[in-house]
Amino acid sequence: MSKANIATFEKLFNEWRDLRVGCMEKNMVEAEDLNIFRILNISHLETKLHTPFLLDLLKAEGTHGQGTLFFRAFLEQLGVCDERELSFYVHAPFDDRYICREEVSDRESGRKDIVIERLSCEKDERFCMVIENKIGAGEQEGQLRRYWEYLEKKPVHSKRKFLVYLHAKGA
To answer: Checking phi first, is residue 167 left (phi over 0); if not, alpha (psi -120 to 50) or beta?
Structure first.
């Protein structure tokens, strides 16, 4: 191998190493590859594991004992409101004025994985969120349209209605 080829190879190797280190540093911060469900080989158990787990985290009275902590973090992650507006959705660390329900069904819109809402209060304090949790399946024909129509029927201001579609890569 000539000196020119060796120098080219060393240059490419060093560039590759720098890219690899950069990717590893990014992964240390973001942990994009971390997926506890895949590690435990249970990534296919959407309705038996993912949805009940997520529901428990989002409930103020969840078994985690952290009140609204996870629901607040979820809202922040989705970007549906800023810190100033967050208190609109969550009034206290143990707010019992919003409810989380699993597998809410009706004839028109079908089965929704999670519905979170606060309807039994002043109209300007109401909100409704439908969460569709898709792990190993795709959207059914017109599914999200039906879910939005379900939301449209709720007595909630339009900017307080949310349709969240979760999939393996995020929301």
So the answer is: beta
